[in-house]
Every structure is written in C-alpha cells, then in structure tokens.
Amino acid sequence: MTSVLIVDDHPVILRGFRRIMEDAGVETVHEATDIVGGYRLFHRLRPGMVVADLTFRTGALAGLSLIRQIRALERDTRILAFSMHDDPVIVSRALESGATGYVLKDVPAAQFHAAFETVRAGRSYLDHDLATRVAVLGLAGQRAPLADLTARELQILSLLGRGQSYQTIADGLAVSYRTVIGASASLRHKLGVRTLAELIHVAVSQGEGGLTR
Fold it and tell me: What's the whole-model pTM score?
C-alpha cells in the first residue's frame, strides 16, 4: 500500500499523521478537511486506506456518511475511524457503517501506529476496553440515550448543545427552519424531554462523551 487518505479538519492532527506515515513507510498521504473533499479525493484517487474523523465543524458524526459512501464505492478499502468519541453506541455505528477499525484520538502514538498497521494489513482493530464495552452493549441489548437518533438528529442536537439557534442551525446545514423545528420535536420525543431548555441540557450533558470533540 503506497497511499493513504486522511480526512480531518484539525491542522495539528494532519501534521502529526504525516509524521507517523513517514515512519510507517507510506509514500503518499492525501489530505481532506471536510466530507465532500474527502469523498471527491477518494473517488478520484482510490487510495488503499482511509483514516477518517467522525466529527466536523458542520456537526456531529458526519464522518459516518463518508465511511458508508466509501465502503459502497470500494468494498476492499481499509477504513480506520479516528475519533474522540468513546461512546460504545457511536463505535458500533462506525463499525456497522463499514469501518475496519476504530481508534481514539487521545491514545499514544505507538498505539495509533499499531491500530494503523493492523487495519493496513486487512485486519479489524478495536482496543480491549472499547471492544468489551461494545460487546456488553450488544449482549445486554442496551439502548443508550443516543442510540435511536438519526445522523441528522445527532447533528442538530450537537449544534443545540453549542448554543446555536434554530435559524443558525438551518442556515449552517442548508435546510429549512421548519426542518430544524421538526427535528427538535422528534428529539424531544425520543429523549423524553418536554422543552427546548431540557433538550439543550441533554445535549450539553452528552457532549463530553458522545457529541462533541
């Protein structure tokens, strides 16, 4: 494998990734800082491996759609999800979307390198702690608070948690104000809250473990 695509919107992450790739002997590293750019580069270059973040400035978990699109286009591409999310529900979603492995951003460089090399060799990767939590989640049939939300609902919940108004969210996501209102109503129903203030409280309380970087 001579080329890898990384999709992440943090310059520091991109610089660190290039150094690790040099140590791994990767000849060419392609970079994209958003979902659209990442998919376009992949479609044009077809690198053998993709390392993708899950969360971008536009909202929560947009990287899941990129993973699904890449997997639909090339079944054999090796995809490593690279994220700060340690919620087992989100890890499960990434794997179900087509990620070959999942590694957290706060791991030591040596552990990231091990994850990269494992996925590069065509094997799945998930560290023991995350694997255990994902397994327990599946065996128990547990439904976490965010488990039933759609990707769009997670995105809007994340933006509400950042203090954005309905109109700002609508403008940022290029959807109608009515769409955001409808999603908010659906979120309140699914999360068992009655008011916008309660919904925002849920968004903020979930932020550290499940919604924000």
Answer: 0.67
